[in-house]
Amino acid sequence: MSDPTLSALILGILEGLTEFIPVSSTGHILLAGHFIGFESAGKTFEVVIQLGAVLAVLGVYAAKIGRTVAGLPTDPHARRFAGSILLAFLPAVVVGVLAHDVIKEVLFESPRLIATMLILGGIVLLVVDRLPLVPRHHDSERFPLRMALGIGVIQCLAMIPGVSRSGATIVGALAFGADKRSAAEFSFFLSMPTMAGAFAYDLYKNRDVLDMSAMGEIAIGFAAAFVAAILVVRWLLGYVSRHGYALFGWWRIIVGSVVLAALSMGY
Description:
The protein is mainly α and 267 residues long. The protein has helices at residues 4-18, 25-36, 44-48, 50-60, 62-71, 76-105, 111-130, 145-155, 165-175, 180-205, 215-243, 246-264. The two termini are 14 Å apart. The protein is 75% helix and 0% strand. It comes from Albidovulum litorale. It is an enzyme of class 3 (hydrolase).
């Protein structure tokens, strides 16, 4: 695709639609970029537009976030919830800093690996969705601290493109006893420091290769991701409460299989 503006718009919409569902937004963007011939210096475009999706969550949950922040000085519940999010965020900080170069220079450059992880992750989602799990936790703001840390450790698997950050955290929360709705909601909240941190660190690491002429494409992708993500966040909690995650598991398997077939034919 020769038009970079159109490519940025498509990739931004794709980011917003896939960031908060367990299908791997990064995997989808990298694969789409591979097939339409879109390249960005240091893969910065792919990371920066994720911030648009973060702002969508901030907008949807602005009231709840505002109450939590306002209650930090006096409310033990608010401090505990904020602490659980920060605790879950810490493992990603450690692994992200230590493995940043390998992730960006090796893993991000392997469409076959991404497609394979999409398929494997889809199988995991289908299996977990059918397990007779008995939820013990129904409020994302009251997850035990040990549970939050465990979810954070599992989130680190999403450093491998195609695994899915939301997929890893949701499956982790379900395995630790969360119900489907609270698992998705905790994943939303954890996405804010995780993705904002990834954005800031990636921008710092790639400061020498940033192409200022591409700011227009980044702005388009950012805005498209923001709008699309708002629609998904508002829809997702109700959907998974009623239907679970099987749809996303099958989607991953189909997309991964199609990509592997296309790659085997030389595309």
